[in-house]
């Protein structure tokens, strides 16, 4: 029990430290987002970046409609969909036999995930200005639109295959194919570093801050970050309190165990030496007689008084190794030695 409390307490504090690191990083991101300027793609953005040092805006939020620079992506399952980013994920649905509960449990395992994209830009609805998005797959915060979801059950397996699956404890039930992505024309907010080179505006990964692409406006992104920060804060506090309580419990048990070995104030009772038997002596009987021998080891004389119950039933070596009286099971507060003249 003591080892479990110590390990759990240390583990909780370590996990709390990791959670605090995530919390601090997200809080820094939220601070930078609040300081970022929100701009629409258009003439105002162009004039602002021309007056900026090196024609660079270090961290701004750009709002515009996503448009492909050339042709869009197509998919066989949804021919009318025009995609800028396309992700196809295939899952295998299985049933596994759980021996402990003796039931079949449904599970899902990802077989493959393929992502394709084309170059696109954020365009103004009222002008011809645009900002090219650099490395969109490295951006965080984007939620794809679901365009296709189909489950194909496997009902035509051979008898031998079914027998093998039953024997192995795993049965394949079906294959699920999911397609999602970013549709052409979606209004997006990109947060990053904007540069002007050769008359072309481009948003890139900032030097130190988070690179974000989201369907939400800047205010919505900040609200989502604030909610996440609050959740990580509560998780950090919870694991810190849990780890602290477990460590205090472990320290209290150690202190209590040591204090029970102290009798008569601060005087420590050393363990009694092992009994020495002569040849031919019956070791099952104590030197002091069977009625006066320790009820635990049955060899040494009873030489301590157990308080608060007052029983004299054990030797000092055995009494220091137990927490309760062997006779009445009362908790041992302290031990007082007895002396016979």
Fold and architecture overview:
With 341 residues, the protein is α+β, with helices and mostly antiparallel strands. It folds into 3 domains: 1-35 and 217-251; 36-215, no CATH class; 291-340, Zinc/RING finger domain, C3HC4 (zinc finger) (Herpes Virus-1). The protein is built from 5 helices and 16 strands. The protein has helices at residues 2-35, 43-50, 159-168, 218-259, 316-319; strands at residues 37-40, 56-68, 83-98, 103-117, 120-123, 130-133, 145-153, 170-183, 187-197, 200-204, 212-214, 262-263, 267-268, 304-307, 311-314, 334-337. The strands form 4 sheets. It has a 5-stranded mixed β-barrel with strand order 2-5-6-10-9. It comes from Paramuricea clavata (Red gorgonian).
| Shape field | elongated
**Main beta sheet, described?**
5 strands, mixed, barrel
Strand content: 25-35%
The overall average pLDDT, rounded, is 85
What structural class do the secondary elements suggest? alpha+beta
Number of helices: 5
Helix-strand topology string: HEHEEEEEEHEEEEHEEEEHE
Number of strands: 16
With strands numbered from the N-terminus, the spatial order across the biggest sheet is: 2-5-6-10-9
Indicate the radius of gyration in whole angstroms.
37 Å
- What fraction, in percent, of the residue positions are helical? 25-40%
Distance between the termini: 43 Å
Ranges with pLDDT <50 over ≥5 residues?
263-270, 275-288
Overall tally of structural domains: 3
Catalytic activity: S-ubiquitinyl-[E2 ubiquitin-conjugating enzyme]-L-cysteine + [acceptor protein]-L-lysine = [E2 ubiquitin-conjugating enzyme]-L-cysteine + N(6)-ubiquitinyl-[acceptor protein]-L-lysine
Keywords: Ligase, Membrane, Metal-binding, Mitochondrion, Mitochondrion outer membrane, Transferase, Transmembrane, Transmembrane helix, Ubl conjugation pathway, Zinc, Zinc-finger
GO molecular function: ligase activity; ubiquitin protein ligase activity; zinc ion binding
Subcellular location: Mitochondrion outer membrane
């Amino acid at each position: 029990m003591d080892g479990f409390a110590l390990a759990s307490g240390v583990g909780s504090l370590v996990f709390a430290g990791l959670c605090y690191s995530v919390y601090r990083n997200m809080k820094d991101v939220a601070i930078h987002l609040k300081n970022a300027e929100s701009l629409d793609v258009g003439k105002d953005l162009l004039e602002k970046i021309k007056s900026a040092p090196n024609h660079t805006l270090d961290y701004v939020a750009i709002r515009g409609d996503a448009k492909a620079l050339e042709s869009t992506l197509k998919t066989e399952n949804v021919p009318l969909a025009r995609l800028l980013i396309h992700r196809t994920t295939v899952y295998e649905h299985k049933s596994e036999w759980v021996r402990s509960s003796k039931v079949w449990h449904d599970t899902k395992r990802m077989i493959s995930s393929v992502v394709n994209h084309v170059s696109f830009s954020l365009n103004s609805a009222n002008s011809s200005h645009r900002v090219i998005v650099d490395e969109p797959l490295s951006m965080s915060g984007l939620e794809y639109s679901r365009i296709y979801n189909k489950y194909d059950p496997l009902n035509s397996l051979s008898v031998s295959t079914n027998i093998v699956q039953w024997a192995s404890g795993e049965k394949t039930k079906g294959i699920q194919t999911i397609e999602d992505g970013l549709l052409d024309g979606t209004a997006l907010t990109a947060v990053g570093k904007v540069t002007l080179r050769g008359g072309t505006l481009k948003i890139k990964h900032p030097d130190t801050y988070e690179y974000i692409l989201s369907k939400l406006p800047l205010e919505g992104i900040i609200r989502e970050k604030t909610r996440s920060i609050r959740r990580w804060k509560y998780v950090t506090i919870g694991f810190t309190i849990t780890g602290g309580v477990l460590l205090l419990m472990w320290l209290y048990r150690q202190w209590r165990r040591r204090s029970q070995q102290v009798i008569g104030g601060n005087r420590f009772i050393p363990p009694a030496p092992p009994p020495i038997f002569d040849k031919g002596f019956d070791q099952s009987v104590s030197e002091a007689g069977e009625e006066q021998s320790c009820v635990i080891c049955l060899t040494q004389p009873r030489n301590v008084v157990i308080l608060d119950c007052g029983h004299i039933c054990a030797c000092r070596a055995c009494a220091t190794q137990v927490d309760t009286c062997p006779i009445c099971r009362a908790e041992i507060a302290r031990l007082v030695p007895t002396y016979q003249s």
